[in-house]
Design the sequence.
């Protein structure tokens, strides 16, 4: 087969391969479960990233939406990215709170230990002080 002949047949071979893969994915129970539900509208059936003319995809997390849904809401961020950002923010907030609580506990233990030491020392000193004769 010459390269020119192969190049002429390439589009039809690719179309056949695509339709074979699409039929399999849409018909296979395991593969069809890998589809996405549009988080903007929530409509079924699932959408797939290989339906390029019907979908829009997030540049950061690769979540898939109906093109019509994403065109209607151009200013909204991707819901999945917003959830991830909120989780990260909550993690940072809780991490800072834990650090503050830990520092407070350590400083309480340190100061509490010193007070106990001072109290014990003053009690010892009181015991050592001789009583004045009466």
Sequence:
């Amino acid at each position: 087969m010459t390269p020119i002949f192969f190049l002429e047949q390439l589009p039809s071979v690719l179309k056949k391969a695509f339709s074979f893969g699409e039929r399999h994915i849409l018909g296979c129970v395991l593969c069809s479960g890998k589809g996405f539900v549009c988080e903007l509208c929530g409509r079924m059936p699932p959408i797939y990233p290989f339906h390029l003319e019907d979908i829009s995809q997030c540049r950061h997390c690769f979540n898939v939406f109906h093109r019509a849904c994403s065109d209607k809401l151009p200013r909204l961020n991707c819901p999945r990215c917003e959830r991830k950002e909120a989780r990260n923010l909550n993690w940072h907030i809780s991490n800072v709170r834990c650090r503050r609580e830990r520092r407070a506990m350590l400083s309480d233990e340190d100061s509490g230990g010193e007070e106990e030491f001072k109290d014990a020392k003053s009690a010892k000193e009181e015991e050592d002080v001789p009583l004045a004769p009466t």
